[in-house]
Amino acid sequence: MELPAEIRNMIYTYTLSDASGINLVGAFKHKRRTVERVSAAAQDGISTSYSCYTYSKINDDVRAAYAEPTALVPALLAVNKQIHQESRDMLYANDFIFADSFALYSFMLNLGPSGAKSLKSVRIMNWGYGRALKAYNHSCFAVLAWATNIKKLVLDKLPGYSRNPNGAAEQLYRDAFPWLEAIGVAKGKVDAGLDVLELGDEALADNYYSTTQSRVVTDADRVDKFHERLGVLLGAQRKRVMAKPIKKRKIVKGVVDEL
């Protein structure tokens, strides 16, 4: 604490920052859902070998195949209140990169509402498929609703099979509306979530399930149509919420009277 603030900031940078981001994979420890931090190379390797019917797994083979991530010292935040206040934003300024929706759900569940508000940049690389894992696609956004100060949310892919812009927007809305609406309320703008939402290069790329309609537009057009449809869905919900209540009627001795 006797060091100048500039030197303390240098220490925080060395101990709490990773230029490659905080790469997290879902894991189980002591019967609890949690996450494990891996290197960026390991994250890419796991994502490449990702099976659509299992969540991205971390095991001893993966740990042995890749170097460990850059060492960080988050325990520094527990030294005292002043250091916690000075260094907290440095830690949460990192890009938080999640292998899939299961990893994001597990992380947010343990982080809680207070920590969630400090998140600035989130990236989701994959989604859950199948009856059990598909539920995490919605659940992760339900707990992400606490994170209303996010500046950037990057989706490498979109949930579901559709690459038609309208269909993809509707699927994302079904999964992500808790966060989209929470950030809209926090920012006082119904479509505020669109300002921080970014799509990866392959998010709307053609695949086996793509429709003919999705193939006749450029990538830029697809993104515009995607954002337009998502904005319409958010606006429609706001209109429903803000609509005037319908007058109730009751029948008294066969006569309809307005309340």
Features:
single chain, 259 residues, 6-stranded mixed sheet, 15% strand, globular
Give a short overview.
This protein has 259 residues and is of the alpha/beta class. It has one domain. It is built from eleven helices and eight strands.
SSE diagram, text form:
Elements: H1 5-16, E1 22-29, E2 32-38, H2 40-48, H3 60-65, H4 81-92, E3 95-98, H5 101-116, E4 121-124, H6 130-133, H7 135-144, E5 152-155, H8 165-187, H9 192-196, E6 197-199, H10 212-215, H11 219-242, E7 249-252, E8 255-258
Parallel strand pairs: 1-3, 3-4, 4-5, 5-6
Antiparallel strand pairs: 1-2, 7-8
Helix pairs in contact: 1-4, 5-7, 7-8, 8-11
Instruction: Report the order of strands and helices.
Output: HEEHHHEHEHHEHHEHHEE
Biggest β-sheet: count, sense, barrel?
Answer: 6 strands, mixed
Major sheet: arrangement of strands: 2-1-3-4-5-6
- Give the radius of gyration: 22 Å
Number of helices: 11
**Amino- and carboxy-terminal Cα gap:** 68 Å
Q: What number of domains?
A: 1
Question: What does this entry look like structurally?
Answer:
By secondary structure, the protein is α/β, with parallel strands linked by helices. The chain has one domain. Helices cover 48% and strands 15% of the residues. It has eleven helices and eight strands. The protein has helices spanning 5-16, 40-48, 60-65, 81-92, 101-116, 130-133, 135-144, 165-187, 192-196, 212-215, 219-242, and strands spanning 22-29, 32-38, 95-98, 121-124, 152-155, 197-199, 249-252, 255-258. Strands 2-1-3-4-5-6 form a six-stranded mixed beta sheet. Strand 1 and strand 2 form a beta hairpin. Helix 7 (135-144) runs parallel beside helix 8 (165-187). The longest helix has 24 residues, at 219-242. The radius of gyration is 22 Å and the shape is globular. The termini are far apart. The model has no long low-confidence stretch (mean pLDDT 86).
